[in-house]
Structure formats: C-alpha cells, structure tokens
Amino acid sequence: MPLRIIKADLIESELIKAIGSITFEPDPDILPTLLRCQKEETSELAKDVLNCLVENVHCAKEDSIPLCQDTGTLVVFIQLGSNVHIEGASLNKIVNMALEKAYEKYYLRASQVIDPLYKRINTANNTPAIIHLRLTEGDQIRILIGQKGGGAENMSRLKMFPPSASEDDIVAYVLETVQLAGSKACPPLVVGIGIGGNFESCALLAKEALFQPLQHPNPHPEYNMLEQRILKVINESGIGPQGMGGHTTALAVHILTAPCHIASLPVAVNLQCHAHRHTEITI
Amino acid sequence: MRIISLQLPLTENSIANLSQGDKLLISGEVLTARDAAHQKMIQILDEGKSLPFDLTSTTLFYCGPSPKPLGKICGAIGPTTSYRMDVWTPQLLELGLKVMIGKGERSIEVVDAIRKHKAMYLVAVGGAAAYLARHIVSCETFLWPEMGTEAIHKLIFCNFPVYVAIV
Ligand code: SF4
Do A111 and B64 touch (CB under 8 A)? Predict the structure, then answer.
C-alpha cells in the first residue's frame, strides 16, 4: 500500500471544528437520557436540577456559550495508520496549535498551569493537550477528542487489587469512589472503569472508556451485566443530581479491560460529569 | 420546595429565615474568587493589610468564568468545587463573610464556622454554565486581572438560581 500524505493544516482545521462542536454540545445521548431521568425522578429537588441541566444543553447551543465554564483539559487519543505520512508538522504540534486556535476562536477558558507544584502560572492558551498515540494499520487517522473538566477528574481513583478480589469488591470500590466524590464531581456522572493492564494502562483504559457513545452497551455479556449492576448500585446510593438526593447519580457506566499480570488486578475509576464533551474524527 | 427571590447582599436576618433545600433567585452584586484569589486574599490578610473590598457585604462566588465573547455580556459562568477553598474559609468567616456560593460538600470545620457566624453556603448547579450565564447582567474584571480566569470578577446577578445547602 502506498503512503498516504495528509497535510498538517487539514488535521488542524478538523480538530478546531471538533473542539468547537463539543464545547457547545455534549454527547448526543446526554439530552434524551437527562429527559428520561427527569421524568423518572420522584424528588422535586432532583427534578429541578435535571431541568436546569436540560435547559443548559439548549442554552449552550442557542447562545454559543460553553456548556461549562471549565472548558477542560483537551484529551486526545490518536490512532495513526502506519501508511500515513503527515506533512507539515508533528502530530504533537498540530494538536497543540489546534487547541490554541480553538480556545481563542471559541472564547474557551485557559485552565492549565505551567508547573503543578511551584509555578502554578497559567499557560494562557490552555496548552498542552494530553495526547495518547497508538499505531494501527491502514491509511487513516482516527482521533478521539474530549474536554475533561477538573472537578470530576479530581475525584477519580485507582487501586491495585490482588487477583483474589471478587466482582463484589470491585463494585464496592466503584461505589465508594462515587460516594467520596459526592456532589463534587457534578453528578449525574458517567463512570469510566478500567480493569486489568498495569498501573498506567489501567488508568488509560478508564479514561478511554469515557470516549464511547453514552448508550453504547458493552459487547462482552459478562462486563455488560457488570456495568448494569454498578449503574444500579450507584443510582441506589441516594446522591442524586448535584448531590440533591434522588436516583439519578449516574447516567452510564463503561468498562474497558485488558490482560494483566498473574499477580495483579488493577481497577481504575475515572469520573466524568454530565458535561460529557467528546467526539471523534476520521481523516 | 420553597422558591424565594432575594436581593443581595443578604443580612443575618434574611439568612435566619432560610432553610436547607430552599431555592433562591438572587439578584445583585457578587465577587468571584477561586483558589488563586483566595491564596492572595489570605496573603494580604496575613501581612496585616486589609482587603480592597468590604468582606462583610460581599457574596463570594467560587467561579472562574470562561472569557467573554465579543458582543456578549459574559462567557460561561458556573460554580467550581468548594472544598478546595475550605482551608481558607474559616478565617474569612471570622472576618465577617456571610454568603458563599459554590458546589459540593464542605469540611466539618467549615460547616461549624458557617453556623457559628450565622453565615450561609449556597450551591449553584455545576455544569449548567450556559443556563446560569443567562442570569448575569454584567461581568467585569475587578481585581488582579493578571490571574486571568482566577482574578476577582464583579458579576451582577438577576434571579440567579441557587439552593441553600448549609445555614
Ligand atoms: S465537573 Fe464537569 S460540570 Fe462540573 S464544573 Fe467541572 S467540568 Fe463543569
């Protein structure tokens, strides 16, 4: 197969468009899911909060105002076909250029600091993005793009379980994570869970789990059942939308798994708020 | 659920009539402050100086707005998670701060200090920043513009919806 040349400018402009679209519109399943939950809620306060979230989806689109003032850290997963040659700039540079331009174009918030501990000075253009690159076959580039807010990200956790841990232990750990988060992570949540891999790849699985469509069922029957079980348990916790009580604490649970070491059973829980902003592009 | 319209700043008397779970539609002036602005305020106070505004009549909103698009009143405006401000809050309550708006739970120390000083903690809906922005009639940077979104911004609310969380 001959090399396919893709110009840096094309990737950059597609990325800018994608960032714009997720700033003002969440995952397309969010609105119908919020509406269904609002109908099913019995608590007056929870209904009121859900109504506000539904209104917010409409307002963001109509007014071209971001869904949330925290326009997040830009997270991208890039699957790069091995027959692609990118001309003009490195992928890292392209993503960060697109990020910088999009943040100016759409008036998004600069939310990154240069140094985590000593020099917490704002980079002023929301760079750098967090970029995960994977090489695949073919002559296309597939890019998953998400804006990840700090509130829900701060409440995420990882635990290295021993292989003797049971399904119950994992369910309890996820529930505990959601309970510790309380209303700080802006429920209703989307819960991304990574099971397996090692310390760093497990966290990555949990993150990548959040890039699936909201109502995407797990193709593995056992994990699909586990997702449903965890969703039910979370929604029985009574936390409710914004911690106001009720049974809409999570909208969906997604699990991704990977093989792991004979001594390990890592579990990572990455929380995502209802401002669930992600999309994908293929070039 | 009681729904009550109120004009800011709130007094101890008006706070005394409110209960947890009440929905308030508040109008008037608020100042935003998140992590960096809190650090700066505490630094000023620790140096024995006074703040460039009257804390006792201030409604503090934990918020870092997104930039104001051309021709608009404001960008996206909503609460940030309050617990990060817990370390500094008792000192501010001691100095007369009465009303804070944010999202999420507070520490036991903060809850105690709120009750001791007859103050109040309100929550706004997190992640509803486009909806909440429709309840803002003015947004200007007030202090420390070099901090960007973390500066203190002066906002004017018009029927801005919040819920009483701690009183
Ligand atoms: S957790 Fe999500 S909805 Fe809440 S403030 Fe952060 S980005 Fe916005």
Answer: yes
